[in-house]
Structure formats: C-alpha cells, structure tokens
Please model this.
Amino acid sequence: MNLSSLLATQSANGKLVRCGLIGAGKFGSMFLSQVPTIKGLQVIAIADLNLDNARASCARVGWQENRIEAVRFLESGADLCALDDLDVVIEATGDPLVGVEHALEAIEHSKHIIMVNVEADALCGPALAARANQAGTVYSMAYGDQPALVSEMVDWARAAGFRVQAAGKGTKYLPSYHDMTPDGVWQHYGLSPEQAAKAGMNPQMFNSFLDGTKSAIEMSAIANACDLSVAPNSLQFPPCGVDDLAQTLCPSDQGGQVDGEGIVEVISSLERDGRPVFRDLRWGVYVVIEAPNDYSRDCFSQYGLPTDRSGRYAAMYKPFHLIGMELSISVLSAALRGEATGCSRSFHADTVAVAKKDLQPGDRLDGEGGYTVWGKCIAAKTSVAGQALPIGLVHGIKMLRSVSKGQMISKRDVEPLPQSAALRMRTDTEAMV
Model:
C-alpha cells in the first residue's frame, strides 16, 4: 500500500497526520497502543465522557507522560470535530445515535471521518457517505475491524477478475445464543467478570457479538459497501472450517449451503451440537470466488487453493484481525491518499430488531446486546417495505403493542421515534432502496 513510505516522506517534510479520537474504550485503546511507533502520526485530541478514564487508557497502553500531556482531552466529540488543526476524526463510541452526530460534525468541518462505529454505519452509512462525498471528505470503515477487511478482499477479488460468490467472517455461534443476555456473557468468552472489567470490556457490547447482533450489523455494512446481498432466509451461520469454505458457501444448486449468489454470510466455529469445528475461522474473514473460465479453474488446483468439488469455486481467507491495532491504515489512507478502506455506497441489507422474549406494551427496548432484542440481517427492500425497526434506533424506545419472542418488531409496534440526526439520515438511507 506504500502508506508507510508516504508517511515517511510527509514527515520528513515536517508535516504530520493529525487525528482525534472520540471514545477511548477497548478499540480506541488498541489504536492508541500503536501510535508511539508510527512516526508522523499524531493524536492531538481525545474526547470521552470520562476524562480520567481516557487519560488512564493512554497510560495503560504505555504512553509516556509527556505524550499524554500534549493531548487535548475533551468531553465533547463535537468540540473535537471543530478543532482547526485536525485532519482525521475517529468515531469509536459504539453508540449509533451519537456516532451519526459526530460524523456529521466532522463532515461539516471538512474532516475525514473513520467510522469505527459500525452500528451507525449499518443504520445510515450510505447517506453519511453521500454527505461526505458532497463535502469532499472521506467517510471510511475502520481497517482492522472485519467489515473493512472483507471489503478489501472483495475489492481484490473483483480487481483480479473473479466473481464474488460469498464474503464474510467467522464467529462462535449456536442458535440458542440469540437468547443470550449480558448476565451470562463472560463465561462464553472464558473470562471472569473481574478480568473483563480490568480490560475495559463492556458486557452488553460483547453480548452483541455473541447473540448475533454484531454479526448482522457487520454483514449489513459489508453488503452495503460491496454491492452484495443477504440470502432470503437471512444469515444461516453454517458450521464451517477453512478447508470447506468453497464447498459450503457455493450455491445450493452446485452442492453448497448458500441460497443465492453474491451474498454475505457468517460461518460458525461450532457444530450445532457444540463440538468445535475443525480449523475454524472464528477470528478471521473470507471471500469465496468463482473462476471465470476453465483455465482459471485449473489454476486454482495447480496453486493449492481450497476449492469446492467442481474446482470452480475457491476460497481465500485471513485467519485473524487485529482490530484497533490496524486502525492507522484507515487514518493514513484517508489523510495521505484521500481513500476509504471500505465505504457504504448503497442500501442492500439492514439489521432489524427481533424480540428476545415476549414483549408487552410499556416495555422499553435496551438496544444491541441487551435483554430485549437481537439484530437480524435482512434485505433492505424487505425492511423498508415492512417498516421494520432498525436495531440502531431501539435504545429506550417504548413498546405500544405486544410482540412475541422471535418476531421482528415494526415501527408500528413502538412509540413514534424521537427526532434526531440519526433518524434524518436513516430516512435518507431508506429512500435509496
């Protein structure tokens, strides 16, 4: 990518890439841990509701006191976006409503915006990206997080002349996980509550990884960035190891388990009976490609790619992702090249709220990873036609009608959604269907 050499050249000429971070949680801390070893990249401001925690995060990842003292610590993300001496804003709060506001503030002040906040991106990323494009700024997914890594693999495949059959990631999944609440989350990660608290890990956020919501959000973001679709029956989470990617994810009429072509899918690291999958891809990403001709098909086998039984479908994968430790790739790509590392461009898939339990009038919904709902990935046109309630807008919303466990919730089932920047951007996004 030549980003390091571009940065070195700019740094030698006395010009730094200056960025600001909103949200000094786990993802932000992982990014901060790398900054001291990236010459020419400077974090000039950090915004967080808890300034003491933000300073402690810097110390915890190894920053020297003089580096910490050089940073402006702010309670307001909007104030950070308005700083004049700033090139790139990183939005890492994880709150979709706040994230949209910060993205709009950054765009308004002609700053590039790196959207770690995939919850906001899945809610209205296409409209935010269009707004940034009109302003001449970069709106980008966060490299290191799986949507950006998958977007890179899809782009590689298409640039090399392959059709993308399927793309996505691995995770630990069983159907019963959709019922999980924050109360039981840490035992599934093999952590004690004390260990999780020490690492700054939020139980509701990490429960959203487990109950399927985060997977749905990320697959929606990938579909919208890569012009892919979600199968009519949503994500199926088939158990699959890396050796079986091409066979499992080729079309059903070719012997696979996928209903359709050009789809997003998540594979599980557990068999349905709970046994571990052989050579699983729990922490990684993949793309399944189709050879455009017989010659290419033969090359797949000649060069050792894992293929389906026909030899026409092959898989490439990356076994791990380093999350925030790779985020500087997005920052530098935006600042030095004016390019996004993945960007929502159209509205193909949506993540909508499904009841975790029987819900009654008066119940209040508590958002991703909570006690009341989980997120399901469906086609955007189905979501809009059915007035489905997007998962990013459910925080604190009161039910008006009864909805049974396992049923999708519609906007008609809840009180009118409060006016917000996120709702306005969501309306613009729905108009893209």
About this structure: Residues 118-135 form the longest helix (18 residues).
